[in-house]
Design a protein that fits this description.
about 220 residues; mainly alpha; 3 helices; about 95% helix; elongated; CCDC93_CC; Coiled-coil domain-containing protein 93 isoform X2; CCDC93
Length: about 220
């Protein structure tokens, strides 16, 4: 009886230990599966992060290209820019011509002032010599020689002024010819530009009409 009882007790202990071993094996198996899941999860997470980084890089590249495309002006804008630059160039040329006229006027007035000062000095010199010339023949001869010298200098000055005047007149005629040619060219350019703008608008209308006709119904 005691042997049967011991055997039964041993069987119970064996069953208990076997149950614990099975539970331990299950726990161990679960741990291994958990490690595999963790490893798979880490791989998937890393791939997800890599895909996000790649997507972010492509998004930045797309945004950069979009900004570059936004900076590129359209054909109509280019025409408008060209027209505005042409107007600006015309205004600058007008300001330049006006400034040149101001400088030329200033130089002329300065030269007139110098001539008037010389004339005043000359008249004062003649006036001072005239009183002494009336008292003696030598004084009269000196006055005549002085007047002849003044006349000779005046004639030389007049010749220089006439030469400068002729040169300025030739330059003026040349500038008038250039101005007439430039005005004619500007009119021709404006005519071509207007025709080009009309054709661009017509082309845009045809393009929109063509795109609308090809839309799926």
């Amino acid at each position: 009886m005691e042997e049967v009882a011991q055997e039964s007790e041993l069987q119970c202990e064996h069953a208990t230990l076997q149950t614990k071993v099975d539970e331990f094996d299950q726990l161990l198996q679960r741990g291994k599966e958990g490690n595999l899941l963790d490893h798979t999860f880490r791989d998937s997470t890393e791939k997800l992060h890599s895909a996000k980084r790649e997507l972010a890089a492509k998004l930045r590249s797309t945004l950069s290209l979009k900004r570059l495309l936004e900076y590129v002006p359209s054909q109509a804008e280019l025409i408008q820019y060209e027209f505005r630059f042409s107007e600006l160039y015309t205004d600058i040329q007008a300001k330049h011509c006006q400034t040149h006229k101001y400088y030329a006027t200033y130089n002329i007035l300065l030269e007139i002032k110098e001539l008037m000062l010389k004339e005043t000095s000359l008249l004062n010199s003649i006036s001072s010599q005239f009183k002494g010339a009336l008292t003696s023949p030598a004084g009269r001869r000196k006055l005549i020689d002085s007047m002849e010298g003044i006349l000779h200098g005046t004639q030389q000055k007049l010749e220089k002024v006439q030469i400068a005047l002729q040169s300025e007149q030739k330059a003026r005629e040349a500038l008038k010819g250039k101005h007439a040619a430039a005005v004619s060219e500007q009119r021709h350019y404006n005519s071509i530009l207007k025709a080009f703008q009309v054709e661009c608008a017509r082309n845009e209308r045809l393009r929109l009409k063509n795109s609308q006709e090809h839309l799926p119904s």
